[in-house]
TrEMBL record:
Pfam families: DsbD_TM. This is Cytochrome c-type biogenesis protein. GO terms for cellular component: membrane. Its main location: membrane. GO terms for biological process: cytochrome complex assembly. Residues 14-230 form the Cytochrome C biogenesis protein transmembrane domain. It is found in: Membrane. Signal peptide: none annotated. Belongs to the DsbD family. Keywords: Cytochrome c-type biogenesis, Membrane, Transmembrane, Transmembrane helix. The chain crosses the membrane at residues 12-40, 61-90, 96-116, 137-164, 176-196, 217-241. It comes from Gemmobacter aquatilis.
Length: 251
């Protein structure tokens, strides 16, 4: 369609990985706890108002939450395009690039499962978006700042998806991977805004399992790294096409 082959042998498994990475990024120890105060700040309301789940409070946070997600998605799409462009420039070294990036992703995964700790990844770097609460534009700026400056929680997962994007031969497919990652991170944020009263209860329960979530992120990163080093993603893609031939007609 339109001359763009989006769904070829390498993209569907990578898209699934990107989606799971986005969701795990949302559940990570330094993202999930800040969701309620971020929603309150962006909506220009107090935390007690947010906890009460009043209809007026819910309406005030939905639009800013949408613009926040648009802000971080803007950055992710740009990064996906840039990573794909970088991979295209070094297309002749793609196998070496895949192995090197895969090894780096495995190291990040070992950090998250606790085999060893990388001090740099235990530090947070945040960009100050200024006093921008209560407006859609302010929420968009805050989304830009969040995507650019919040580490270590989304950095390693984002790095893994950028590695996948850099190994794609197409700028479009690489950008799609980051769009799917943004969906995995942004959709739970929007659902939290839409169903804030229930979401706060769920998030409070999830906080008890932060260690398990962090280890799950580590396992995912290790699997992505191994897939990059061994080329397993391409093998999985061809297997899917053999089992479900109609996938070859998509795109």
């Amino acid at each position: 369609m339109f001359g763009i082959d989006l769904f070829d042998a390498g993209l569907l498994p990578a898209m699934l990985v990107a989606l799971v990475a986005g969701v795990l990024s949302f559940l990570s120890p330094c993202v999930l706890p800040i969701v309620p105060p971020y929603l309150a700040y962006m909506g220009g309301i107090s935390m007690p108002e947010l906890r009460q789940g009043q209809a007026a409070a819910r309406r005030r946070i939905i639009l800013p939450a949408l613009f926040f997600v648009l802000g971080l998605s803007t950055v992710f799409l740009f990064l996906g395009f840039a990573a794909s462009a970088f991979g295209s420039l070094f297309l002749q070294y793609q196998q070496v690039l895949a192995k090197v990036s895969g090894a780096m992703v495995i190291v990040l995964g070992l950090h998250f499962i606790g085999l060893f700790r990388i001090p740099l990844l235990d530090r947070e770097a945040r960009l100050d978006a200024g006093d921008q609460g209560g407006t859609a534009l302010g929420a968009y700026v805050l989304g830009l700042a969040f995507a650019f400056g919040w580490t270590p929680c989304i950095g390693p997962q984002l790095g893994a998806i950028l590695s996948l994007a850099a190994n794609e031969a197409s700028l479009t497919r690489g950008t799609v991977l980051l769009a799917v990652y943004a969906l995995g991170l942004g959709l739970p944020f929007l659902l939290a805004a839409l169903f804030i009263e229930r979401a706060m209860g769920v998030m409070a329960r999830l906080k008890r399992h932060m260690k398990l979530i962090e280890r799950a992120m580590g396992v995912l990163l290790i699997l992505v790294g191994i897939a990059l080093v061994t080329g397993a993603l391409s093998e999985a893609s061809w297997f899917l096409l053999e089992q479900f031939p109609f996938l070859a007609t998509l795109g």
